[in-house]
Each structure stands twice: as structure tokens, then as C-alpha cells.
Amino acid sequence: MRPFRLSSGSLLRKVLISSVRGYLGLTLRTMRWTFTVDPAARKLLTAQDGHTAIVAFWHEALPLTPALWWWAEPQNPTLRLHVLISRNRDGRLIADIVAPWRIWSIAGSSDTRGKNKGGAAAIRRMRARLRHGGIVAITPDGPRGPRRQAQQGAAALAAMVKMPIVPVGATCSGFRLKSWDRMIVPVPFGKGRFVCGAPLFHLHADGRSAAEAGQLLSAAITDAMGQAEAAMPSKARIADLPTEEFRPQPLDLMPSRLWATAATVAAPALPFFLRWRQTRGKEIASRVREKMGFASQPRPLGAVIWFHAASVGEVVSILPLVENCLRQNARVTALMTTGTVTAARMVAQRTVQEARIVHQFVPLDVPRWGKRFLSHWRPQAAIFTESELWPNLIGLCHERNLPVALVNGRMSPVSFKKWCNAPRIARRMLDRFAWIAPRSSEDARHFEALGARNLLACGDLKTVAHALPVQEDALQKLQTYIGKRPLFLAASTHEGEEEDIRKALEQLRNDVPDLLTLVVPRHPERGAIVSSLFSGAPRRSLGQLPEKTDSVWVCDTLGELGLFYRLAPMVFIGNSLPDVKGGGGHNPLEPARLDCALATGPLVHNFIEAFRSLGESVTVVETATDFAAWVRQMVSDPELRARKATLSQERVSAVNGDLIDRLTTRVLDLLKS
To answer: Where is the DUF374 domain (predicted)?
Structure first.
């Protein structure tokens, strides 16, 4: 009869893994632990100054070490722990048991007796993890002993990466197996002790041989183990080192269990919601399933970086960063997700020549849908943009050890106030980010107040975006067609603003009778409504051009702002008047690059740093009368208009020159982590 074996996908193996994990989790959670940690070791175990170490403990203490990780990770949730575990069946079983606790295995062990056990490949992976801020744990007497005798691999690895080794000893209430290592098996509701000794530097210094370095390491781990065992019954202090009691809990992978549960409960109704949006033109019928995590394209080969930008503004700001990443790493593909149809069309227009940019709609923040999305695309890094903070998606990335970053991070006063009502969720979510690049100093203060760590220097990507593109033949045709009529552009207007513009134009009718006003609604689907406000004004989306008798032309198309900014020498930036629903402004730097005199309403809090950088080159208008007065002045005084436009260009060209390159380096470094 052939011996019975547990196949990798067998039901019995799954039951065994689940049972062992459940028992081990129960015992470690209910144990009352006492930690004695050398101060220098603490800094390394929590990467307080960015430096980490190799952690070494005897194989017998392996079942206890998740508690050490649960102690360290909450102090720095950006940490990554990798454990060297044998690639045999028993090792793979252990790896699968601890993987849900974000303890990632590196398969391999020392190559002995001429057998390739993956040691060389494992060393390469450990070196890479250590050099990019991770922690690597090793049992130097594993996988088969001799017990408490360190083999040469750990000391050799430390010499290669020039990093110290932290010796760790651990014991607890329980019993020992009759195995070669006398492995400790903990029991629930007991007591346990960890001792983390002083880091060992330069084991091979002073001409020590590999054998001597191994003896020093063995002595240090055995000493830590002995101190832990001796202190167990008496709670004795050890060498006057800092001691603390701790009841461990694995770091909750999802920032909010309540949010995850609510999203799961709502999931059956969400397809009907998506179909309803589809009837209103806000979803694409053939792609609506992408928002449930179903991919519509195959995953490309090689590394994938996932960039998420919710809408048009975020797409415009992040595309130069995406393109720069692709230029600097020819083996990477960019997966770009958006939330809106207009943003999807923008990506398609701007990336038609770039085969290494794949677009999908982002799944709604439902755990099962997010898992489906991540399982298909398997990105190596995730980059969110501005205020796109989705707890479930971010938690799922953390669960998969997928590094997440936030670029152009925006935390408006309104959003900040809302997140302050859920501070624990906000902190847990922000803890998952490897780094956050805030858009402005105000955003940085808000993120920091909510508990964010690893904040980079401030810088707004919109300040360094390329000038908006234009089709030169279309520009020349329109310039010829319109001739010398004075042109005024109301860009990215929202509901409630067009009425103020109509009133202003009535005041200008006698003063500037041949004025042609271009109205570009932020959402092109509002074109018909906007046209009706101006007595059926011609619409560009229908191929209509303004006649000499038309005073308004509704430009309800997507991706043509670069054309209209070049046509019109004076521009009002929408979403900023007091009568608008919402408000907050739009990016003023796009028209500033294209020789435009600028005006805005008073509501600019979404782009306050950008407007601040432009200073007095931008005129603030609040009423239809202010509006009319500004247009009248710009038409009647071309020299003043030109000076305003030149000042705007000078201001925008002086801001954040190296921001794209700095962020590109940080994004590509995530691939190495």
C-alpha cells in the first residue's frame, strides 16, 4: 500500500491547516506575554529609523514567533516580515498556516550533501527583502538540526547585506514534542516570555572563521533562550532591560470590519444600482461587470503597477507620472483604473499610442469584488491618487503584502472633518500606506493629524503636468472660422454656474456685441441642458459651429480643453461660484500654461495651493456683475490681459520642477520591496 500524502489542494490538508491555525491563534492570543527587548533591538524590529535586521531564534520556538510579529507590526504597519522555511512538505504546511497573518515565507534551506534545497535562491530573495526595508527571520538550526547549533547561512547572510542579527529567545506555558528540536507547543490562557537580545554586528570581524561566527550566534540565541526560560516562573527582570506585558492580536487586515460587512451585505443590490447608472449614461454596458471585479482583458506578462485615478482631473495629473515610470522601466505595464466614464475616455484618448497602459474600471469597495480584481491582475504595487481612500481595497492590498502609496494626496477640510469622526478607521487605513505624497502643506497636516506616517515632501502633480494636447489642424480651422471676434471661455462649469454666466452676458451685450462665449460643461452629458439655458446655443458634440449671430457656443466634448484654452485668451475656471452645487474649483494651472488671463469664483478650496502659487495673476469674481466687469476690462485692455497671462505662465513654470522624477523613483522602488 502506498503511503498517504496530503496533496497541495486536498480537503484534508485545508482542514489540517485551518485547525492548526485556529488552535495556534487561540493559544497565542490568550497568552499573557512579557517582552524584554534591548533598546537597540527594538529600533531594528520596528524599523524606527528605516533600518531592519535579521531575526534569529531556535527552531523549537517557531510556533511562538507570530506573537513577536503581532507585537512589532502595530508599531510600524509598513513592515514586511519574511521567514526562511524549508521547501519540503512540512515547511510548506507551516508557510500556509502563518500566511494569513502576513508572515511571508521564503522557501529554501542550506544545501547539504550535494542536494539542492533552494539555498542559493533563498539567499538572493532574503538579500533583496533586507535591502528594501523588510525583516527576515531565520531558524539557524533548522530544518533538521543539530539542535541549538547555528549553521553558517545566517552569519553569512548578515555579512553579505552588512546588517545585524537580533537573537531572540521565547518560551511559554505548554509542552514539548519528542522531536529532534523539542518543539514547544503552547496551551491556551498561559504565560509566555520573549527576550530580544542586543544586535550582533560584524560576526566575521577580527578574522573570525565561519565556524567561530556560528558559535558566537549560537551562544547569543541560547543565552536569550536561557534568560526567557529562567524568568518564566518568577517574572524576574532581565539585566535591567525594558520589560512590558502584552496581549497580542494580529493586526486587523481590514481597516474597518463594519465597513467590510456593510459592503458585503449591500453587494446583492449593487448590480441593480450599476444598471440604473447605465441607463443614465454613467456606465458602459459592455464593461459594467468590471466594477464587480471581472476583468475584460487578460493580464499582461511581467510586473504590473496599478494606478487608480477616480476622474478626469486625477487622470490628467497622474498620466505624466505613469508615462515616466514606463520610460524608466521597460519591463513594467501600467494598469490604470478610473471610476467614471469620462475619465475612461480620457485615458483612451491620451494613451492610444501606449500599449503598456491597460485601462479597467475600478471595482466597487466590496471585499469579494476586490479579491476577484486583485487575483486576476496580481499587481506588484498600487498607487492611489488624491482622495481615493477605499478601506476594503486598501485592506485587501495589505493582506496580500502589496505595497500601497498615495500620490497627490488630498485631504480637504470637509473630508478631514468626516474622517475625524472615524479616527480608528482612518488611522488603520493610513497605516497601510508605504508612503503618502501630500499635495500641499495643509493636506500634510490633515494626514498627519489622522495618524499617517511616512509623509513625503509636499508637491502638486498638477503643477508639473504637460500642457494639454491639441490637434493643430482643428485649432487652425477654428481660428480661421472665428476670425477676430473677441473670445471668452467658461471652462469646466457645473450646475448653477451657467445661469450666472447668462446674466453676465446680458450685461455685456451692448458693450461687446460681437463677443463669442465658449461654455465647456465639466460633464459633457449636460450639453443639451446648458444649450437650452442659452436659447438653444449650438453644440460642438453635434458638429454645430457658431454663426455670426450666435453669442454662445456650447463645447460639450471630452478631452478638448487644450484646444479651447488655445482659442480663448481669457478663461473663467468653473466649480467656484457661490451658486454652484458643491464647489471647490478646478485646476487653474492648465490654462495658466497656455497664455490665458484667468478668473475664478471664491470657492477654490480643492486647489488652494495652486491658486496661491498663481497669486494676483488670477482675478476673483463673485457675482454676474463682477463677471461682466472682468470680461469688459480684458477685452478693452489687451495689454493688461497679456501681462496677466504672462505672469500666470511665469508662476506656474517655477513650481515643483523635479516632482515627477522624485515620485517615479519612489514608485519603482516599491517593486523591489
So the answer is: 77-147
